[in-house]
Each structure stands twice: as structure tokens, then as C-alpha cells.
């Protein structure tokens, strides 16, 4: 029987073209498209072409999208993808407990990816029932970035 997924020479990744792998962690850094989370759409050039993101930006976009995507809601994602921050809504817990849970949930979600080395330096700012937080993410390549999000409690 013929192979349904044939591999030809032009389909095989090479070191110069394909994603890079870190030997010590097995992390695969690939490319993606830039996404504007405020507008909720992909970034386009004036000629309406998608703007590519480099390997670091693709990882940062993955981190932000993971935090913003509710876990278990969309069948297209694996059960390990997304965060459980929505579970904090309406629980009536005190701020110290909520901040601890946000720290735990965000760290668990982002450390599920082999590209992420650490998640730390959380900062919280409360505005009524909304908790705006930021944290520093570090990749296995020692690249860092600050990301932020909001949780309604």
C-alpha cells in the first residue's frame, strides 16, 4: 500500500532550513506568525501578507496564547495546553491566595513547553476585581521576556 504521507527530499528538515533543537533539552524552536492580542488578529503588512515572527517571538507568542487560552475548552488543543485561570473567577478567595494560584497556574502552563526554562518575577496590580499581572519568562537559550495578562476574579 502506498504511503499516505510520503516524504520527499524537499520535505525533510535540514539544519539550515528547519527548526533548531537544543541538545540538552530537546526543545524545538520554530517560526510562526505575529499576532496582535489587543486586536485579536494576525499582524498583516500593507499588502495584506502575514508578518512572520522569528524563533524567540514565536515562543513568546506561544506563551501569551497559552495563558489566554482556557484549558479543556477547545477540542483542537491537547489537554496539556492552556491555563486554568478561569477557575479563579467568582471563588471569593483573598488576594494572597489568588496571587499564589495565578503564579502556580501560569508557571505550570508555560513550563509544559520544553523551550521554557523558568517563569519568575511575578508582579500583581489590583484594579477592583481585576488582577493584572506580569512575569518574566526565560527560554532554554537564556532569552528573557516580560509578559502580562489580566484575570477577572
From TrEMBL:
Entries under Pfam families matching the protein: Sheath_initiator
Superkingdom of the source species: Bacteria
Protein name: DUF2634 domain-containing protein
Species this chain originates from: Paenibacillus lactis
Amino acid at each position: 500500500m502506498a504511503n499516505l504521507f510520503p516524504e520527499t527530499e524537499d520535505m525533510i528538515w535540514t539544519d539550515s532550513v528547519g527548526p533548531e533543537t537544543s541538545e540538552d533539552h530537546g526543545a524545538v524552536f520554530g517560526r510562526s506568525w505575529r499576532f496582535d492580542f489587543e486586536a485579536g488578529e494576525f499582524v498583516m503588512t500593507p499588502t495584506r501578507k502575514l508578518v512572520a515572527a522569528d524563533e524567540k517571538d514565536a515562543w513568546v507568542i506561544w506563551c501569551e496564547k497559552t495563558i489566554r487560552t482556557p484549558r479543556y475548552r477547545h477540542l483542537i488543543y491537547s489537554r496539556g495546553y492552556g491555563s486554568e485561570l478561569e477557575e479563579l473567577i467568582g471563588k471569593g478567595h483573598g488576594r494572597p491566595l489568588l496571587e499564589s494560584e495565578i503564579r502556580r497556574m501560569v508557571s505550570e502552563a508555560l513550563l509544559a513547553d520544553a523551550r521554557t526554562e523558568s517563569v519568575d518575577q511575578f508582579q500583581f496590580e489590583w484594579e477592583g476585581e481585576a488582577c493584572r499581572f506580569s512575569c518574566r519568562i526565560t527560554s532554554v537559550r537564556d532569552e528573557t521576556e516580560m509578559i502580562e495578562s489580566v484575570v477577572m476574579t
